[in-house]
Design goal:
By secondary structure, the protein is α+β, with helices and mostly antiparallel strands. The protein is built from four helices and eight strands; from the N terminus they run ββααββββββαα. It has one domain: START domain (Alpha-D-Glucose-1,6-Bisphosphate, Chain A, domain 4). The chain has an eight-stranded antiparallel β-sheet, covered by helices on one side. A hairpin with a 3-residue loop joins strand 5 and strand 6.
């Protein structure tokens, strides 16, 4: 597993847990925006089909995350500022041994930065989802590691399920218990 340093953090805001990443990419702002707002590019770094993404406030969202999951996200667009912010509700019904994961929001914010652009990812979880913080840190870390290949139009290197467990455990060791 090739990975960048452990750059994810968790912040407590208003009784919620915000899984937070900031990453620089060697890509122009419009290309990074396309990677978070166009189904064909989202599919690359999220690892599964984007069945629906209506880019309008109130628009429907249906995204399959990593087909081996097979987690499916259902949501609505709650904020859209083209070339700046895409924010969605992010609900995942129970799958495998994971219970329902409802009441979360996903925010992708893009900004120009030096010779490229920056993505700020904030996955906000309700207070009763502390059990899922390390998993979200590990999962988003791996997805963000796949984003440079998507931006370059290259095939995404596959990751094994064990990569996720290893990354989750590294974050658990780094962050410690979340309560």
């Amino acid at each position: 597993m090739k990975t960048s340093g452990l750059d994810g953090t968790v912040r407590t805001t208003g009784g919620r847990y915000d899984v937070y990443f900031e990453r620089h990419f060697d890509a122009p702002l419009d290309r990074l925006w396309a990677a978070v707002s166009e189904p064909g590019l989202l599919e690359g770094w999220l690892g599964g089909p984007v069945d629906e993404l209506e880019l309008a406030e109130g628009g429907n969202v249906v995204i399959q995350i990593h087909p081996k999951g097979p987690a499916t996200v259902y949501g609505k667009v709650i904020r859209l500022e083209p070339l700046k912010v895409l924010e969605l509700t992010w609900d995942v019904p129970a799958w495998r041994n994971v219970p329902d994961f409802f009441g979360t929001t996903m925010r992708w914010e893009v900004r120009p930065e030096d010779d490229g652009s920056k993505l700020i990812l904030i996955h906000s979880l309700p207070s009763d989802a502390a059990w899922h913080v390390h998993a979200m840190l590990g999962a988003w870390h791996l997805h963000l590691d796949a984003l440079p290949a998507t931006l370059a139009g290259e095939p995404i290197p596959p990751f094994a399920e064990q990569d996720f467990f290893d990354m989750r455990d590294m974050y658990a060791e780094l962050i410690g218990p979340v309560t």
